[in-house]
Amino acid sequence: MSTTRKPVSTGERTATNRERLVAAAAERFHTRGFEATPVEDILAATGVSRSNFYYHFADKRELARAVVERWIETYDRDIVTPSLAAEGVPVGRRLADLFQRAAQFQEPAAGRTGCPLARLVLELAHQDPAVRRRIAGYFDSLQSRIAALLGRRDNRLGPDAGRVAELAVCVLEGALLLSHVHQDPGHVRRAGKLLATLVA
Amino acid sequence: MSTTRKPVSTGERTATNRERLVAAAAERFHTRGFEATPVEDILAATGVSRSNFYYHFADKRELARAVVERWIETYDRDIVTPSLAAEGVPVGRRLADLFQRAAQFQEPAAGRTGCPLARLVLELAHQDPAVRRRIAGYFDSLQSRIAALLGRRDNRLGPDAGRVAELAVCVLEGALLLSHVHQDPGHVRRAGKLLATLVA
DNA sequence: GTCTATAGATTGATAGAC
DNA sequence: GTCTATCAATCTATAGAC
């Protein structure tokens, strides 16, 4: 139809209504949850009208899918990549740094509830299997990156790098959850340091 | 008021309506989530009337608190205690056994979504801080029990038993989450074996 | 792309009798 | 302790105009 026109670029521009909606939803779905956050809240926070919301998204679940993509991008750009891709830094320190950054994100004052992807997958996997697979894929890629790092040096632990990387992802996700339960980001830092000691 | 009478014993009896409601809710809150499960579903599953439900529970959140208690009892009785309290078994094997039992619980065919306490705390912590503290307390006790086990022998790892126990709980919770995300209970088994290797 | 107004459905909780 | 009937609120989504 000729009524819908695409913007010239989806790249760098001032935030569109759609982007504002996704940003507001990302924060609320993380702190309060998907089901517990009415569309109304996101509308009020952004000043976008209800009907405009449904112009951009077919339904609330489509918004959730966009939120998942946003969290993957954010988490990867701000936490994972800066620590793992640090050239010239020993593997153990890179790992500890990853946990340090994750801990910073986890401040309770900001209402953080562990890993945002973990929270979303729990609420969305049942009604939208594609979301589960998407998040599984991201965790896989994270594991692979860590494995590649560990594989570069002599492994004095015996088990192969893949297994250790698998364990590292477990520790990260578990520590993020426990830091929420105990309201203490130090949990993530301590887990990261100990893990780095064990594998490096 | 003289209209409410307490049962003679709350211990061993055939399941009361209240117990049936909690059992049905525990399963559904775990597989579908708290917010996504209407009271109606629990009523239909148990055959209990709506009004009888509100005779037993002030509201849905009170039901959730009862569900949390039930999961703590179940998990502790069926998974944690049998493995950790096994006399004459080496510490490493007790830990691996704990993960083995947790993995069995995690069969995807049953719709398992990781640790039931983790799922509940995410949805309930924001509106009911007491639930978060209760679950934090249970994780603390689990950590203490593991620490006591580890403390019994020479620790060749350097860090004290408390830290290692803290890490073990992280690994357990993280592995349970990832087993849901990847739909593979083997995740929990592998994490348990590797952890046992590292600390024992 | 955006707005106002409203439909349509679900759901948590209560009233009052037995 | 349990039942039927119903209220009142909340929430997702759509209709139709500009």
Distance between the termini of chain A: 59 Å
Largest interface: A-B, 47 and 48 residues
Structural class of chain A: mainly alpha
Largest sheet of chain A, in brief, is: none
User: Helical residue percent of chain A?
Assistant: 55-70%
Mean pLDDT of chain A: 91
Which oligomeric form is depicted?
Answer: homodimer
Query: How would you describe the shape of chain A?
Result: elongated
What percentage of the residues of chain A does DSSP assign to strands (E)? under 5%
SSE order of chain A, one letter for each helix or strand: HHHHHHHHH
| Backbone CA Rg of chain A | 19 Å
Strand segment count of chain A: 0
**Unreliably modeled segments of chain A:** 1-12
Number of helices of chain A: 9
Task: Write up what this structure looks like.
Two copies of one chain form a homodimer. The first copy, chain A, has 200 residues and is an all-alpha fold. Chain A is 68% helix and 0% strand. The N and C termini of chain A lie far apart (59 Å). Chains A and B meet through helix 6, helix 7, helix 8 and helix 9 of A and helix 6, helix 7, helix 8 and helix 9 of B. The structure holds a DNA duplex (18 and 18 nucleotides).
